[in-house]
Design goal:
The structure holds three protein chains of three kinds. By secondary structure, chain A is of the alpha/beta class. Helices cover 39% and strands 24% of the residues of chain A. Chain A is built from nine helices and ten strands. In chain A, a hairpin with a 2-residue loop joins strand 9 and strand 10. The C terminus of chain A is likely disordered. Chain B is an alpha/beta fold. Chain B folds into three domains: 30 residues; 100 residues; 102 residues, no CATH class. Chain B is built from eight helices and seven strands; from the N terminus they run H-E-E-E-E-E-E-E-H-H-H-H-H-H-H. Chain B has a seven-stranded mixed β-sheet with strand order 5-6-2-3-4-1-7, with no helix packed on it. Chain C is mainly α. Chain C has one domain. The longest helix of chain C has 41 residues. The mean pLDDT of chain C is 91. Classes of the chains: A alpha/beta, B alpha/beta, C mainly alpha. At the B-C interface, helix 1 of B face helix 2, helix 4, helix 6 and helix 7 of C.
């Protein structure tokens, strides 16, 4: 159970989040959507304690991330698996070593057990034979899947996906979406998906939270997204539907600008 | 073969530490693992001596200066020297600071003591060369001198005893020789008396010359002309002095000729072959006497009550 | 206006806190043990050739130029040795190595950490529950502190060796003349100060590079900026530290 309570955050003069509250229930798949720069990634970084809110609190299993000592925070973070936008694989290590990395540091598994666990994770993401390759030798979709395998290797309770389908072709996006669904049902994890890909939202999410500017404007089940009263969400959904065919190019072009 | 990172790093660190150690020992100029020992020296003035300067004995490097310190109590400079094993430094050696510090050639030089002396023991202090009195130098030589003097004195005392006995006999040749020698000395005295005036004049001239020279050096404002003229005058006087000296030596010459010809007592003494023969036989006799003495000391020493005690 | 005036102080504070956090995680060093040795090899052993090359040239140049400047019959040739050897031990060996390493090691660390920052690898480490500061910065700074003195020794040995060799080959002075001069004015303080400097430079280069890399922002341009600043700031602070050590210990 993750509870976000009234958090505000600004970088310098730029207000990114203001008074945002959100609950993530056990076992659900929550999609956080919004336009680029609406504060989705910032919200996600608050959930894992990478950023501290200017005001407000984030509770993970009833512990306040803002106020626990660093050592406790590190323990809490082990309940999370995070799939970063670019995968964030360590490029000095092979795929195998990337997935084994958290196991080596935080589990008491023997080398053969680690090997077995890594293979298990690779099988889960349908990439059984890339263990020896370096991240630079992999395609974008494969990289994300290896990163996902790394995220689940420590059997987290929560998996956070930061733009899981951005920069991928529609077919690969679908593979990822299927994977998210598969992991949620297989591992019984709670998933938080940050995305602006409406296709992915409709495929995956149980519930949707819509961020507009700095505010959380709408939260509700995915079924109600088409007939809500919020004009901003309506326009967002409509824009996505019109461009659903070329959403990948639209997003990939919008990304590099800071 | 693949080496582990730990091995590479460990090897690198150890190699560097060894290189640093060896390098420092190398530049400190001490043998890598060899032994050295410390000596101390005291000077009135360090003359710019600093640690690392070489220590030389007869121009050969035998060590280096370890530390230079001014002793606040005695106001002397106390220098610690680090000497290599090898060339031993005999007791009685003295140290001095030589060289010019501006040119970097300043060093401690050790004037070694007598060769026969035992080597100096580590940790002792070498006295300074310049501050030593002749008495001090003598005491340094003492160990070697003492043993020499000892043997000389032992010989002398034995000889003296024989001589005494010889001289006490009124008819001995030695006594006559001595009488002749006394006469000769008288002759020489007469000669000296005769030439006394000449010698005095010579000395006076020399004095005047040196006086002129002193005056000359005193008036440093004089023109070169005056200086040269004065120098000429001085040289002229010196010349005259030398001619007087020539005369004196001529007189001495005639005396020597006389002596050679056998005129005068001294001459006779020198030219009389029988005297030599006599001295020779005296020596032979002394020899037999000593031989006799050695074989049967009792005969000569029977009068000495001291011997009877034994 | 005030903000830009305060910026250096803020940066210094941020830097101090970061390095403080790195050293605070020293109790976890066993966890980063492997990483520490990897960094020691990359920072130290891989830098040996370039440091040796730079030291060789500086030793040779110093000998030739000293010989040229002292070409009068009044000064003994041994003085060349007395000047070259302490200069390398005291200053040249360590500062030249420091500059080389500011470029080689500092830029490398800043680029590495900067890339990890912008590609969210640092966040990934944190989210796994690793202390990214301890994991990334401590091994690099420790490796710098330990390996720079090793490189300093390399620099001195090669520099003085080349100096002797050049003096001999160039006909300026013989090997034994050089050694006599070097020994005459040798003081233990010279290599000791060089050693202290090398430790200081090792800390400066690695910690500044880690700071710049760790707080990189803004993509490829940001990584470029961090890399440049790491190298430049390292050089500047090497000079400052050089002066400070000289003033404090001489």
């Amino acid at each position: 159970m993750i509870e976000v309570r009234n958090i505000s955050k600004s970088f310098g003069d730029l207000q990114v989040l203001s008074d945002v509250s959100l609950d993530v229930n056990e076992g659900e798949k929550l999609a956080i959507i919004g336009r680029s720069g609406s504060g989705k990634s910032v919200l996600m970084k608050h959930i894992v304690g990478l950023l501290k809110p200017d005001s407000g609190h984030v509770y993970v299993d009833d512990q306040d991330l803002c106020c626990v000592p660093y050592e406790r925070l590190r323990e809490l973070r082990k309940r999370f698996g995070v799939l970063f936008q670019g995968g964030a694989l360590f490029d000095s290590l092979s795929s195998f070593e990337n997935i084994a990395f958290p196991l080596r540091y935080f589990s008491s598994l023997s080398e053969s057990e680690i090997e077995a666990r890594v293979q298990e994770c690779l099988d889960l993401v349908n990439l059984s034979d890339v263990g020896a390759k370096n991240p630079s030798e992999l395609s974008g979709g494969m990289r994300k899947r290896v990163a996902l395998a790394r995220a689940i290797s420590m059997e987290p309770a929560y998996i956070l996906y930061d733009e899981p389908t951005s920069g991928l072709d529609p077919e690969t996006s679908n593979t990822i979406n299927d994977l998210i669904n598969h992991l949620a049902s297989e591992l019984k994890v709670t998933s938080v998906i940050i995305t602006h890909d409406m296709h992915s939202v409709l495929e995956v999410a149980d519930r949707v939270a819509f961020l507009y500017r700095q505010d959380l404007e709408w939260v509700g089940p995915v079924a109600e997204i088409h007939d809500c009263a919020n004009p901003n969400l309506n326009s967002f959904v409509r824009a996505s539907e019109y461009k659903i065919g070329d959403s990948s190019t639209a997003t990939s072009l919008s990304e590099p600008s800071p | 073969m693949q080496y582990s990172n730990e091995l590479k790093v460990g090897a690198a660190i150890i190699l560097a530490a060894l290189a640093a150690f060896a390098g420092i020992r190398f530049f400190q100029n001490v043998p890598l693992f060899g032994s050295s020992y410390a000596l101390y020296a005291e000077f009135d003035d360090a003359n710019g001596l600093v640690s690392g300067n070489p220590v030389r004995m007869k121009g050969v490097k035998v060590g280096s200066v370890e530390r230079v310190r001014l002793d606040p109590k005695t106001q002397t400079v106390r220098v610690q020297l680090k000497l290599e094993r090898g060339p031993t430094i005999p007791e009685g050696s003295r140290a001095s600071v030589s060289g010019i510090s501006a040119l970097g050639g300043v060093h401690v030089s050790i004037a070694p003591g007598p060769r026969d002396n035992p080597p100096i023991s580590p940790g002792s202090t070498l006295p300074s060369l310049e501050s030593s009195s002749s008495l001090g130098r003598l005491t340094d030589q003492a160990p070697a001198l003492a043993s020499k003097a000892d043997s000389v004195l032992r010989n002398t005392s034995a000889t003296m005893a024989t001589l005494n006995r010889l001289i006490s006999r009124p008819d001995s040749d030695l006594r006559q020789t001595l009488t002749a020698l006394r006469g000769m000395t008288n002759d020489l005295e007469e000669v000296t008396e005769a030439e006394k005036a000449t010698i005095r004049r010579l000395l006076q001239n020399l004095e005047a010359v040196s006086g002129d020279l002193r005056a000359f050096t005193g008036e440093n404002g004089d023109s070169l002309d005056v200086a040269v003229r004065r120098l000429n005058q001085s040289l002229g006087r010196l010349n005259r002095g030398l001619s007087s000296f020539e005369k004196t030596s001529a007189t001495l010459d005639t005396i020597t000729t006389k002596l050679n010809n056998g005129t005068g007592t001294a001459g006779r003494l020198l030219n009389d072959p029988s005297l030599y023969m006599k001295l020779d036989s005296a020596a032979t006799r002394t020899n037999t006497l000593l031989e006799d003495f050695r074989q049967d000391p009792g005969r000569y020493l029977e009068d000495l009550t001291l011997v009877k005690v034994f | 206006m005030l903000d830009s005036l305060l910026a250096p102080f803020r940066a210094l504070g941020q830097y101090a806190i970061l390095i403080g956090r790195a050293f605070a995680s020293v109790n976890e060093i066993r966890m980063y043990w492997k990483n520490l040795f990897i960094q020691m090899v990359r920072i130290g052993i891989d830098s040996v050739p370039i440091v040796a090359l730079a030291a060789a040239f500086s030793g040779a140049v110093l000998t030739v130029q000293t010989a040229y400047q002292l070409e009068t019959p009044f000064i003994p040739k041994t003085i060349i040795g007395s000047i070259v050897a302490p200069s390398i031990m005291l200053e040249l060996g360590v500062v030249v190595a420091g500059f080389i390493l500011a470029g080689r090691v500092g830029a490398r660390i800043a680029a590495e950490l900067g890339t990890m920052r912008v590609s969210e690898q640092i966040d990934a480490l944190e989210v796994m529950g690793l202390n990214s500061v301890g994991f990334l910065i401590l091994p690099r700074v420790l490796a710098g502190i330990v390996m720079f003195p090793v490189l300093y020794v390399v620099s001195c040995v090669v520099g003085i060796g080349t100096g002797i060799f050049t003096g001999h080959i160039g006909g300026f002075l013989s090997v034994s003349e050089f050694l006599e001069g070097a020994r005459q004015f040798f003081q233990l303080l010279d290599p000791f100060i060089g050693f202290i400097k090398s430790v200081a430079f090792g800390f400066i280069v690695t910690s500044i590079a880690c700071y710049k890399g760790y707080y990189t922002g803004g993509g490829a341009v940001g990584v470029g900026d961090s890399t440049t600043q790491a190298a430049v700031l390292s050089c500047v602070f090497i000079l400052v530290a050089d002066l400070l050590v000289a003033m404090l210990l001489l």
